[in-house]
Amino acid sequence: xxxxxxxxxWFANLFDADNRLYDDEASSGRHDVTRAAQTAAxxxxxxxxxxxxxxxxxxxNHGRRQSTVAALxxxxxxxxxxxxxxxxxxxxxTQQEIALLYDPSLLTARHAPQATAEAPRFDQTLRIDLxxxxxxxxxxxxxxxxxxxxxxxxxxxxxxxxxxxxSKAPHGAKSDADVLxxxxxxxxxxxAQAIWLRRRIDALIAAGRPVMVxxxxxxxxxxxxxxxxxxxxxxxxxxxxGEAALFDPHAKxxxxxxxxxxxxxxxxxxxxEQRYLQALLDYIMVTPELRARAARWRIWHPMDDPDCxxxxxxxxALLTASDHFPVTLxxxx
Length: 333
Hints:
The protein is α+β, with helices and mostly antiparallel strands. The chain is 29% helix and 23% strand.
């Protein structure tokens, strides 16, 4: 089977109030990319992936009139995708939802939020001391992770969690000192979210469930100047350590080669510097029993992956569709 995670920039902008694709020449929100061009590019990418299940990060908006599930199912029908059913969990107010598109002939997926004393449900509040003042802070997810019970046609059951961890920009800052203070506070909250997520993973592993965590962690080794301050990145916290550690080969490579070349899954234009920044932000992390099932990972990077580079139409589509590139996991289930 093939599982994928894909952060689609400005996906919500491609759908009208009735959850239908605009597919016109208006701007998509991506620089110099129309809605029609991004829609066509996404269709080509999703069809090339041909995945049994795709965790869509920054999925279309869910609100009073709009429906993430309806939008994704219309998108799948428009391009004739096998992954034509959709499921989501708790919605948020950022217009960047988390949802799963999947092939209903090969698996079922059900939103199954859980809670323990150490890790409340992802739409609730975690109380944790984020610093050294012995006072609990209230932490919430701006984008609650999507927790799913997945069962394949063969009867194999696993727990899947889609996540989009993100540190807010220092809005409201009036000086360089304010920028630093707010940036540190926001990063501290992101690390607390990673701890929350890791506690859920630990509970599932303790219950004997295979676990797959996939999505955009927006953090990683060597990514910013706060790493030395906090000691560990969100990625390292979610991966864990010891027998209960999750595995992702790209994360392992990045963590072991802090000064060398590392895989990347996203490409952003930095206007002040007039150049692109590449980073590893997207992961599919699994427990040992899943890794042992002939697991094979791939980042569909248009310049780094030979097959993507050799297909000009797919290469261009990947660059047009989003500032992130899909990550897939092929596994025998």
